[in-house]
Amino acid sequence: MFSKKKAGKLVEEGMKLHRLGDLRGAEMRYVQSLSFDPNSIEAHLNYGDLLKATQRPKAAEIEYRKAMIMDPERGEPHASLGSLYHSQGRHEDAEVEYNLAYDLQPGNLNVQLNLAQLYMDTTRYSEMKKMYSYVLPKVKDPKLKAFIEDRMK
Known about the structure:
Layout: H1 2-20, H2 23-36, H3 41-53, H4 57-70, H5 76-87, H6 91-104, H7 109-121, H8 125-135, H9 142-151
């Protein structure tokens, strides 16, 4: 029990350092966290995000896949892997992962926005507009709402 609590604290510290731009410190916390609790999905996802941000896509993919194995019914690992593939221009793979994430978490606004962006990037404008019109009523942020409305023109 102590190990999981310590691991959770280290993940929180890592996330804070990551937000502050201390990537080396964040990485140390994520790795330490995983040494206390190798089954921490949050640690694998956050470590994967850090690896993606530091241009280590293969290592990031491994972390996301570990999280998928630990909880196959959770959408975040698929969304994260979709985002990684999208950033690499692997659009077909990204779409598969985004759709899996969407199926597992149909209300996840970020997944829907990522899918819309993918449709735009692959010149599938009618699908992009359809996704944006589905998303638009859920958007609270006025800047994001204006951005989406502009894209739908």
